[in-house]
Amino acid sequence: MYIYALRSEIDGRIYVGMSSNVEKRLKEHNAGYVFSTKGYRPWKLIYIEKALNRLKARIREKYLKSGVGKELLKSIPR
To answer: How many domains does the chain have?
Structure first.
């Protein structure tokens, strides 16, 4: 399982998610299949991290969605 972060090339917003196939998931985001990201396409992968299992991935995903985690992701150069 992987945790990933995307940056909208339209307005710079960041989306955090988890998937076992990040490449496929990114294509789904950019094709408009994901309701929450559809209006902010195109998306660029800015961060990826491997987790040992789904539970650990979910914990890390929640952290990256928090204020501190989002600030960490915002510090990644464009």
So the answer is: 1
List CB contacts of 18: < 8 A, sequence separation 6 or more.
1, 2, 3, 4, 51, 54, 57, 58, 61
CATH number (domain holding residue 41): 3.40.1440.10
Structure token pair of residue 59: 């914990």
Contact 14, 46 (CB under 8 A): yes
Positions of the chain with pLDDT under 70 = none
Kindly state the tokens that stand for 57.
């991935």
Residue 43 is part of which domain span? 2-74
